[in-house]
Each structure stands twice: as structure tokens, then as C-alpha cells.
Amino acid sequence: MIVEEHNVVTLSYELRNGGPEGEVMEIMNVHYPFKFFCGSDQLLPAFEEQLRGLEEGDAFEFVLPPNLAYGEVDPEQILEIPRSLFDEGDESSLENVLVEGNFIVLSDEEGEDFNGKILSWNEEQVKVDFNHAMAGKTLHFKGVVLNIRKATVDELIRKQVVEEDGVRGWDWGVN
After folding, report:
1. pLDDT digits (tens, 9 = 90+) for 51-105
2. Which domains does the chain have, with CATH numbers?
3. Is 132:12 a contact under the CB 8 Å cutoff?
């Protein structure tokens, strides 16, 4: 059996930023492997494409540049927001929110949520980066295909992996 659409694939891998010697960003090992429904449109298309055709036991190693992953950092997604929009709670709770590097969720007028990272702030403005957390990063994957199986009827309907104890979802933030 090979990695192809409508199969459930189990992988172990190490994800590094930039290349084989880069910073480790994620490890999915045999004790908690990465499982996905191939063809679900929930993963990066280039990630699935690199795995298609592999068999159980095959090793893989590939690089996804930003244009095939989460894109380059878009300066227009870095915004300065009036600090007054954050002043709804008491000052001590605000100090816990306004921390450089914190990830926050903000909603627009229509109620749509946006994830952002606080870059800096002062008495007037809060600078927030709304780019994907992995934007601008070159993703280096190295791993092994642990298992491949046909999806169950329930998985075909849901287009995601269903474990014995329920659905095991995965969201890489792909738009």
C-alpha cells in the first residue's frame, strides 16, 4: 500500500527550521505519531505531495520553502492597534496579555477571529503580527512512514482520522 488519497497515513518525523541542522520546531515520534487522512485538504499540499507514492517503512527527507509552506512574512500583516482596544480589563490582567511574544486572538467587526503575536507595545499602540507563526520559515522534514491503511467509511465521510476514542483532528492553519 502507498501514500495516496483516501488512505490514513501514520508518520514519525522531525521538523527543523531551515535545514537539517536548524532549530527543532516539532517532533512527532513513534509514541505520538502524526496521523492524517490523505486528501483532506487540511495539510499543506506540498507536504502531501512529497509523501505520495511512499510505502510503509520508507524514509523521507524534504524541504518546503516558504512559498510552498506558509508564505513569506507579509509586512502588511503587521499592524499597530490602539492600546485602548486592550484596556477592557484591570491593569494587572492587561500586563499578562501585553507581553512580547504572546499569541493573542482578536476579532473583527464580523466576529471573525485572527491569531496574532505581540511584537511590542507602548502607552499608545500595540504592534501585532498577524502572519502565520511559520511564515517565512523553510521547513525541513525528516522521518519515516510508519503505517498506511485504507480509511474507514466514517473517515471517508469526515475526511479526517477517527481514533477509537474519537476524532483526532489536526490543524496546521492552512487557509
Report:
1. 999 999 999 999 999 999 999 999 999 999 998 887 666 565 677 788 999 999 9
2. 7-70+136-167 (3.10.50.40), 75-129 (2.40.10.330)
3. no
